[in-house]
Amino acid sequence: MKNNEKPEVWLRGPLAGIPDLLQPVAHALLQAQEEITALVQDFPDELLWEQPAGVASAGFHLQHMAGVLDRLFTYARGESLLENQLAYLKAEGSPPFPGCTAADLLRILDDRLLSVMQQLKQTDESTLKEVRYVGRAGIPSTHLGLLFHAAEHTQRHLGQLLVTARILISAKE
Fold first, then answer.
1. From CA 80, how far away is CA 93, in angstroms rounded?
2. Each residue of 29-82: pLDDT tens digit?
3. Is the distance from CB of 159 to CB of 32 less than 8 angstroms?
4. Given a cut of 60, is residue 119 above it in pLDDT?
5. Which residue of 15, 52, 66, 81 pairs with 109 in a disulfide if CB–CB is 3.0 to 4.6 A?
6. Residue 93's closest CA among 69, 123, 66, 61?
7. CB < 8 Å & 24+ apart, contacts of 165-170
8. Element housing 68 (H / E)
9. What one-character DSSP code corresponds to residue 92?
């Protein structure tokens, strides 16, 4: 670690207001946010929707992380998805509006992360073992399972985003 770098989020101690059992979820999400923010600062917007070797674009990963967090935290509340959430899912991978930049997608993701952190703060730990249902098929999971998967899935797409961005940027140089 360089002198001017902070340790990873999980090494900075407990996060105020987050229930003890949900600290790892919050740490993983905030770590992803920091790494994505650092990446987006220097990411060329003209590469946002490029798909090197047919892999998902950087834009897709940014959109997908925000969308998955929205969907999984909706299920964690015991709710079904709304039409606008289904429409967002179908549109992932395409620019949401003309001239969309990486900074725009980061703002959308940051807003979603702010919302899910609030939901984590309001989560009663006694509900974590309760069954929650996923999707139209109503596949059973647990409240904790959904929250953990949201963090894990975000981290998975962060890794893919970092690799895709490195490939795109190095090909441009």
1. 23
2. 999 999 999 999 989 999 999 999 999 999 999 999 999 999 999 999 999 999
3. no
4. yes
5. 66
6. 61
7. 165/39, 165/43, 165/47, 165/58, 167/52, 167/53, 168/44, 168/47, 168/50, 168/52, 168/58, 169/42, 169/43, 169/44, 169/47
8. helix 58-76
9. T
Can you list the domains of the chain with their CATH numbers? 18-172 (1.20.120.450)
Q: Tokens 């959308």 appear where?
A: 108
pTM of the predicted model as reported, rounded to 2 decimal places = 0.94
Mean pLDDT of the chain: 96
Residue 90, judged by CB atoms within 10 A of its CB (0-12, 13-18, 19+), counts as: exposed
